[in-house]
Amino acid sequence: MDRDYLYFHFANLGLALIGILSIQKIVGPVIMALLLLGCAGGFLFSFYVRNSRPPHIDTFIGMLSLASVVVVLSRLYETDISFESLLSVFSAALAWLTLFQSFGLKAYRSYSLIQFISTALLISSVSLAAEQEISYVLYITIFLFILIFTMRLALVREKQSRGSLIIGDKDDVMSLWNQIKVGAIMFSIILILSAIVYPVVPRFNSLSMSWIPSTLLGLPEKLPISKLFNTADKTIKEGRSKKNQIVDDGTKKRESREDKIQRKGIDERKEETVTRFQSSDFKSDIDAFKIEALTIKSDRVETTIERQVSLSAEIRLTNDSVIPATRLVDWKAQGTAKVSIDKDGKMTAKEEGYVEISATYMGTFSNDLNIKIIAPNKPAKKKGPLFYFFVLLIWLIAGALLAFSVFISIRYKKLTDMRRDNPKEFIKEVYDSLCRGFRIYGMPRPGYMAYREFCNILIVEGRHACPLPVEPVKALTEGFMEARFSTHEISEEHIKNAIGLFREAKDIILQSEGRNLFWKNILFRLYVLDVTLIP
Amino acid sequence: MLTSRGVSLLLAVIILLAIAWNTDITMVYVFFVITFVMFALSYFHMRFNMPDITVQRLVQDTAFEDEMLNVRINVQNNLSRGIYFFELIDCFPPAQPDKKEVSLFMLDINAKEEKRFNYTIDCYKRGVWKIGPIQVVSQDALGFYRMRRTLDVISYIIVYPAFFRITAFPPLARGSVSWMGVETAKISGDSHEFFGIREYERGDAISRIHWPSSARHGKLIVKQFERNSVQEVTIVMDFKEGNDIGTGRETTLEYSVKIAGSIARFLMDSGAFVQIIGYTNETMVVPFGKGESHLYKVLEYLAGVRSNGAFTLSETLEEASFIAPYNSTLVTIMLDNDIDALSSLVQFKVKGIKLIVVVLSTSTFGYAEGVEHLSTEDANRFDEALMGLEAYVYRISKGDDLEKKFEAV
């Protein structure tokens, strides 16, 4: 069996399942179960028939896919055309496509389509915020890992299918373990860099015109597109909230069920109060029967305590003329927050909560304005030098650990190569590594000292420092001298023997207990870690 | 530089940014950042993974058509770090049209390591070819970017045309050469046999005097050698530009080359002297000769010929009439629409030269611009003229089993 194909096929199943799972809120539990099970079945089916596909299966799959897309998209007929609804219908269509396409997987292109659909599903569901953030973290993490895995496999498979000759140890490089290892490294690097980049990503509402040079100041105001840029709704969310505040039929806007639930959720503990503010002026020449609509606006929808919000009112008459009526209307504030509105329409917030502002003039009701009042931001507490010291310390430790890991990796690689290419040097390195370890216990080997002499000194003096493995050290010294000075062929057997003796010596040293030995043992482990890792 | 996969990722980055700005959902920003980092990181990885390598190609100098060739490649990594997932594309023009670029995908090569490997390839078409250069294609680990670099690793190879087996061939004309009175040449072989002695005549070379017999008879006696008979064959080919009809290996030129090579080998194996005349824009004549070294001369000539000459077959035959010896054989390989060439063959008949004509049926090879096929009437006239020459005729069509055609006389 083609192992790469097996991995590639079922890794793609993982991507498809994550894509479908991410839109579970859109399609409902029953459809979700059907899609998940069907998709898994489809992948199994296409795996088993990969070499003998039933006739006309592609036509059948194509027709089913088309039918599903048509049926799902027909829902658009009775759906409001909005970003959310379009994306929901689009996602549902894609999910059904995934199901049917999974039965027809064979060529490389069909897998690319599945990958594309899965990514689109994930993007759709994230854009709709259909899930909790924690779920998305999980989805994106798994998705990214599997995607890296499949892409590396796909790269080699693509070359193979185009007739390339693969050079290198494919069994080793493309083994599952190696793939997972490389994928994990790449995945970690991407996540770490993403975490670094994320804070500097410009958000739309943080974009500023301040970067425009002074010579061009004023120009943005004159350019139509730039004006549009300044005055347009910054986000869909903002646009939606503005839309809710304006009604065009002149009647009082009815509160929707969703608004009520949302408001209840925001502050259900506080009681709502109603406060009315009478007008200071009256214009007798306005005919009440000619009033078409009364519209009120505010300069912001969110404010802080003790900060003023400017309210304005306009009366539109049947002859399309508009009369400013800020001083003429009676204001009504209903909500959990206390506010005051003066005769010029300046609203001052007194406490946290929300208010729904409306106005009346001669029996005509205005639209409602929802204004949220929040507590002013307190300046962040300045952190002391101790905090920065700890942060620095943590970074230093992390850096040191990273450097040590890199050093050990390089040493490990070097020793592995040496074991294969130069067994004599390898045995010498094993011996040197053990000698370095003895330094921790106060027994360094000076350069002028002969190897057997050092061995004898170790046996004699070592009794006082720590119990030393006499026999393994002796045997290792002899083995080292044979590798170092003789012209004998050094075989794999010699290497295995040297590593065995090294481990035996290490274990005996580490089993010893005594004062001050705990830290020395840890240091010893670190000193000989490179050789210890050699299998 | 961006692959189709890279373009898809770039689109995803842009779409995600647009959605993020419009919805202001934190997770979409996170998603965007991840894809953006993947995109940027892949580029740097591709730059980092650009190999600095030395490549060597070892390939034999000559091969025959349809022979599987073993090409040895040595790759030396000059960097002090390993490189992964890069491709070497070796340009091998003698291969089949869809296999002229040999792709070698290297999974990894360690720092300063030298890797040696072979690939085999079919020598599809004869010719004198330049192999190379080698392109190095590096890419990032996920295949979003690709970058190409060319290494000038060039080798040359001569691909000889393939032969087919000839089991029978019409008898050749037999000419003779007397060695009497000719300067002794250092030629070994049966034709230098001692025949007898006779009395010295004026003009005989002093070196031919047989001194012991002269002393015995008391007059000058010279050695006499056997009169030597030889078979000499001239093969005339048509390399006029535009007279190569067909595509790939199924063209009149390729058939001519194959037939000429096979006939030359068969005749040389039978002890005949063979010369080839054909006017391309470079090569012209391979003079008489025989033996293995001469066979390779013929093969080299045939490997390199192209249909790019200015001379028609008729003009080539005119030239050949000066070179072809009396009582020799002339083999002409011609197209079945070349009536002019038939007229030129008449003079050879007068000189007592035996004619063997190989006629290629042009209509079976397809149609070429500027090449006219004969009408039925002209075709009949062509056949009559051919019969009038009293030549031995082989008629070859595209797809014919050539071995069968040359199986019996």
What does this structure look like?
The complex is a heterodimer of chains A (535) and B (409). By secondary structure, chain A is α+β, with helices and mostly antiparallel strands. Chain A has 3 domains: 3-200, no CATH class; 249-374, Immunoglobulin-like (Sandwich); 391-532. Chain A has helices at residues 3-22, 24-27, 29-48, 57-73, 83-101, 108-128, 133-161, 170-173, 176-197, 219-222, 224-231, 236-245, 257-266, 385-421, 423-440, 451-465, 470-485, 492-511, 517-527, 529-532; strands at residues 165-167, 273-277, 291-298, 302-304, 308-317, 322-324, 330-335, 339-341, 346-349, 353-361, 364-365, 369-374. In chain A, strands 2, 4, 7, 10, 11 and 12 form a 6-stranded mixed sheet that branches. In chain A, strands 3, 5, 6, 8 and 9 form a 5-stranded antiparallel sheet that branches. In chain A, helix 1 (3-22) runs antiparallel to helix 7 (133-161), helix 3 runs parallel beside helix 5 (83-101) and helix 6 (108-128) packs antiparallel against helix 7. Chain A is elongated and about 120 Å long. The model of chain A is unreliable at 246-257 (pLDDT under 50). With 409 residues, chain B is of the alpha/beta class. Chain B has 4 domains: 4-48; 53-160, Immunoglobulins (Immunoglobulin-like, Sandwich); 178-228, no CATH class; 231-405, Rossmann fold (3-Layer(aba) Sandwich). In chain B, strands 19-18-15-20-21-22 form a 6-stranded mixed sheet, with helices on both faces. In chain B, strand 20, helix 7 and strand 21 form a beta-alpha-beta unit. The longest helix of chain B has 23 residues, at 26-48. Chain B is elongated. Strand 1 of chain A pairs parallel with strand 5 (101-109) of chain B.
Write a concise synopsis of the structure shown.
With 535 residues, chain A is an alpha+beta fold. Chain B folds into four domains: 45 residues; 108 residues, Immunoglobulins (Immunoglobulin-like), CATH 2.60.40.10; 51 residues, no CATH class; 175 residues, Rossmann fold (3-Layer(aba) Sandwich).
